[in-house]
């Protein structure tokens, strides 16, 4: 019985390990496919120039700039190229050419001058050329594609933003409530559960991601620190005018007394993380 139990335990362990191996193998095979199927939004194709990007496959378009042809030995005049050259012939027979007389070489006396007799012009030797594979290789890429490696920023959908008209619509009836404090609490509570849009983000120089929010969008800083922007958003749609400044350092310097002198209802110091940090005084 002990031996049977021991064998049964080993079978269970082997079965569990087999399942783990199958799972890990399947996951390893699926992961590259998932990665490749992830959408990019940069509008560019991932491309790295390889040898084919420099090769012209059309054999009628060699890139070497040379014409095919045989070479020549070239020519430089030597002593053998010079001698007596006939420059003229004088008729000396004194007879006219008639039916009974036809001029031949004996009827003429030749004049000679010393000059070139080779009949060639001096020239440099040239090599012949036959196009080979090297003639179809370019020094610069000719594939017509831009070299591009997808960065993290390429996976950010910059067009995935909200329509401010929806915010206006959501709070169009807020003024039916006369109490400013209640309006603020209503807007703030209504925003509970809102999250940053992680499909739309910006990557800074330290490779940190900053995500889109409607609060940053409202103040034209879509990926900025939205803690203070949230405050402004709540005040705006609660229809409470409190001299809000999106520059928090400036706004926090405004004192409660300053607000009261201006006839305001009070002062909101800071709203953030979907909680009221300090309510109206």
Descriptive notes:
- With 281 residues, the chain is α+β, with helices and mostly antiparallel strands.
- It has seven helices and six strands; from the N terminus they run H-E-E-H-H-E-E-H-H-H-H-E-E.
- The chain has a two-stranded antiparallel ribbon. Strands 3-4 form a two-stranded antiparallel sheet.
- Strand 3 and strand 4 (209-212) form a beta hairpin.
- The longest helix is centred in the first third of the chain and has 36 residues, at 2-37.
- It is elongated.
Give a quick set of tags describing it.
28% helix; 7 helices; elongated; 3 domains; disordered C terminus; 6 strands; 281 residues; alpha+beta; two-stranded antiparallel sheet
Overall residue-averaged pLDDT value:
80
- What oligomeric state is this? single chain
The fraction of residues in strands falls at 5-15%
* Tertiary shape: elongated
| Uncertain stretches of 5 or more adjacent residues | 30-37, 259-281
Number of helices in the DSSP assignment: 7
Radius of gyration: 47 Å
Helicity range: 25-40%
Major sheet details: 2 strands, antiparallel
In total, the number of strands is: 6
Structural class: alpha+beta
Count of all domains: 3
Which H/E pattern describes the elements? Answer: HEEHHEEHHHHEE
Major sheet: order of its strands? 1-2
Task: Produce the secondary structure layout.
Layout: H1 2-37, E1 82-91, E2 108-116, H2 164-170, H3 180-190, E3 197-203, E4 209-212, H4 214-218, H5 227-237, H6 248-251, H7 256-261, E5 271-272, E6 275-276
Antiparallel strand pairs: 1-2, 3-4, 5-6
């Amino acid at each position: 019985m002990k031996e049977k139990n021991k064998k049964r335990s080993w079978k269970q362990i082997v079965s569990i390990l087999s399942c783990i191996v199958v799972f890990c193998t399947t996951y390893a095979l699926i992961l590259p496919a998932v990665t490749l199927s992830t959408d990019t939004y940069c509008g560019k194709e991932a491309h790295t120039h390889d040898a084919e990007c420099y090769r012209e496959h059309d054999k009628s378009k060699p890139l070497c700039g040379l014409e095919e042809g045989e070479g020549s030995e070239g020519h430089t005049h030597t002593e053998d190229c010079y001698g007596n050259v006939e420059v003229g012939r004088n008729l000396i027979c004194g007879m006219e050419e008639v039916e009974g007389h036809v001029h031949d070489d004996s009827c003429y006396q030749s004049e000679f001058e010393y000059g070139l007799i080779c009949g060639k012009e001096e020239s440099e030797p040239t090599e012949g050329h036959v196009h080979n594979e090297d003639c179809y290789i370019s020094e610069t890429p000719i594939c017509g594609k831009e070299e591009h490696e997808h960065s993290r920023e390429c996976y950010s959908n910059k067009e995935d933003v909200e329509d401010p008209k929806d915010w206006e619509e959501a709070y169009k009836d807020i003024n039916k409530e006369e109490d400013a404090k209640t309006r603020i609490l209503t807007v703030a509570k209504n925003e509970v559960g809102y999250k940053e849009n992680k499909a739309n983000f910006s990557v800074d120089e330290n490779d940190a991601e900053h995500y889109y929010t409607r609060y940053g969008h409202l103040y034209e800083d879509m990926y900025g620190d939205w803690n203070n922007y949230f405050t402004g958003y709540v005040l705006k749609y609660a229809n409470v005018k409190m001299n809000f400044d999106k520059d928090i350092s400036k706004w926090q310097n405004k004192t409660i007394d300053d607000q009261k002198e201006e006839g305001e209802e009070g002062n909101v110091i800071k709203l953030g993380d979907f909680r009221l940090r300090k309510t109206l005084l």
